[in-house]
Amino acid sequence: MKLFNSLTRTVEEVVPREQGKVGMYTCGPTVYSTATIGNFRTYTLSDILSRSLRYLGYDVTHVMNLTDVGHLTGDNEGDSSQGEDRLEKAAKKEGRSAWDVSEGYAQEFFVHMTKLGIMRPEVVCKATDHIPEQIAMVSDLEKNDLTYKIGDGIYFDVLAYEKTGKKYGELSTLDQIKFGARLEPNPEKKDPRDFALWKFSPKSGAKRDMEWGSPWGVGFPGWHIECSAMSTKYLGDQFDIHVGGEDLRSTHHPNEIAQAEGATGVHPFVKTWVHGAFLLVDGGRMGKSLGNAYTVNEIESRGYEPLALRYFYLTGHYRKQLNFTWEALGAAATALAKLRKTYQNLKSDQTERTTLSSEKMEQIEKYQAEFRAAIENDLAMPKALATVWGMVKSNIPNFDKVELLLEWDRVLGLGVDK
Ligand code: AMP
Ligand code: ZN
To answer: I want to staple 80 with a disulfide (CB 3.0 to 4.6 A). Which of 75, 256, 297, 339 is the partner?
Structure first.
């Protein structure tokens, strides 16, 4: 299978570390509110990738985290180490504890995931269940002289990291590096690129719901450390594929690499980095303040089945922005209904299997190869869908059409036989 690797900026063959096995990690949701249809575009991408790899015969271990501590609001303004903890902020707003907020939205996330045909990863891990692992990784970084302490926490020292001969920020696209873009940089930091590994709880004022003791004092982990600590715990110091939305490419992922490689010394931490382009709504940015951060709840309340949204996602290539409109969702719902109807008609109109002519055999093999080539070529899902429609309209026997539809649905996950 070929994928576009953001690290090398080329489409290249995925060569697993261990033959026949793939370890992959997806940066999961921050469970402080209902996941949006934008977030789910990215999770559908990792699902399609994991399903495709399984279809091609790989034994896949997919790990996804749930961020329930440490993801600060400053992340949107150019400094992920500043601002309020999204979970604590939501807790105050909703009048319940950060623990309850996390549990509630995590459960809702799983329900929406299932409705969208997203297979549950082998491991789903919460940041708050892995505090010792995160403390251990920060301790390793400390031992390797890659940390320093300032007023509000322990920070990763990017210049010290670079002095060891390692590169920082290889994934970033230059024009996207705008450190401290909208926030005043913390003057105590040695370099604007440095980021918090462990933040101290505020000395006065409101007490946090989530805090833990550590060798550095009571506090909570920085956002980035959870992914390095949990991915290496479940997949090893080096693994095959890492997936996330394109917004994570310039800071979160470079920080994950620096932490993991700084702690373990193993390079490269991940061989293939896959980034999904954003979902737009009505041609523009999707945002809570814009009132267009739709969720699966809205999709359903407007009378659409969530799998219609999945069909819609498949109509765009993952590296291109995709524009959501209710009309486009309606068109996807119509196409999905037509596909299911076609499947039912083909199924009820099957004749006994007879020996196939070599010409028909060749045709079936051609479709099989075409579908496989589409997914193997950097997950060309629009091409895979075109193959589906081409095949059902062809003159191969209905028996084979039904078989192929069911087989391909292992990748598409559309429930054609629903
Ligand atoms: P968050 O819950 O903010 O941590 O984001 C979870 C995931 O959703 C990350 O991989 C983001 O890159 C991704 N994401 C956020 N907004 C969008 C969007 N509009 N389209 C696609 N992916 C998104
Ligand atoms: Zn991550």
So the answer is: 75
Residue among 222, 83, 72, 70 at smallest CA distance from 156: 222
Of residues 287 and 285, the one with the higher pLDDT is: 285
Pocket residue to mutate for ligand 1, from 34, 39, 320, most atoms within 8 A of Cβ: 39
Shared domain for 19 and 129, answered yes or no, is yes
226, 130 Cβ separation under 8 angstroms: yes
Domain shared by 251 and 370, yes or no: no
Q: What is the CA(243)–ligand 1 centre distance, in A?
A: 11
Question: What is the number of structural domains in the chain?
Answer: 2
State mean pLDDT over 58-62. Answer: 98
- Residue 244 pLDDT > 90, yes or no? yes
* Residue 347 structure tokens: 């199924």
Q: What is the pTM of this model?
A: 0.96
For the CA of 32, the closest atom of ligand 1 is 2
Q: For 345-399, write each residue's pLDDT tens digit.
A: 999 987 777 788 899 899 999 999 999 999 999 999 999 999 999 999 999 999 9
Structural domain span for residue 119: 2-276
Structural domain ending residue among the three candidates 223, 255, 276: 276
- Ligand 1 centre from 245 Cα, in Å? 5
Q: Tell whether 250 and 371 lie within a shared domain.
A: no
End-to-end C-alpha distance for the chain, whole angstroms = 29
Q: What is the pLDDT of residue 204?
A: 80
Q: Which of 219, 215, 234 lies closest to 140 in space, CA to CA?
A: 215
Write the CATH number for 244: 3.40.50.620
List, for residues 86-99, the tens digit of each pLDDT value: 999 999 999 999 99
Residues 6+ apart with CB under 8 A from 308: 299, 329, 332, 333, 336
Give the ligand whose atoms come closest to the C-alpha of residue 245: 1
Is residue 268 domain-shared with residue 356, that is, in the same domain? no
Q: Which residue has the higher pLDDT, 291 or 122?
A: 122
Domain boundary among 252, 276, 300: 276
